[in-house]
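The material for today's practical consists of a large collection of protein records. There is nothing in a record beyond a sequence line and a structure line. Backbone structure tokens are a discrete shorthand for how the chain folds in space. Nothing more is needed to start thinking about how sequence determines fold. As an example, a complete record with its sequence and its structure tokens follows.
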Amino acid sequence: MSSTITFRPTADDSRIIASAQAPQETVSDVIRRALRYLDQEAWLERFRTEAATITDENLSLEPETW
């Protein structure tokens, strides 16, 4: 899937991008990295939410399987 997304950064956005930009890294690379980070954060939030619902599980009481 290849598409173009137009992004008009504010002065603050530009500052953040510049501070996160590694040498030889393009702005697109920074945005892609930020999107991956957001995806990971969303996964972690889903994990934490699910883990909070498992209150009666005690793995130390499970038999060893190895």
